[in-house]
Amino acid sequence: MTLPGLYKGALGLDIDAHGRLYIANTEAKQILRYDPRAGQVDTVCGVDLVKPTGIRVDSTSGVLFIADLHAFKAITVTKSLPPTPPTLNMDLANLLCQDAEDTFSDVTFLAEGREFMAHCAIIAQRCPKLKDAINHSDGKPVALEVSYKCLVSALFFLYTDRCIVDQTTQHDLLAFADRYDVCRLKCLVEEYMLKRVNLDNVLETLRTAHRCHADRLKKACIKIVIRHFAILQGKIPSSGLAELPELLTELILSMPK
Question: Pfam families from the xrefs (predicted)?
Answer without folding.
Answer: BTB
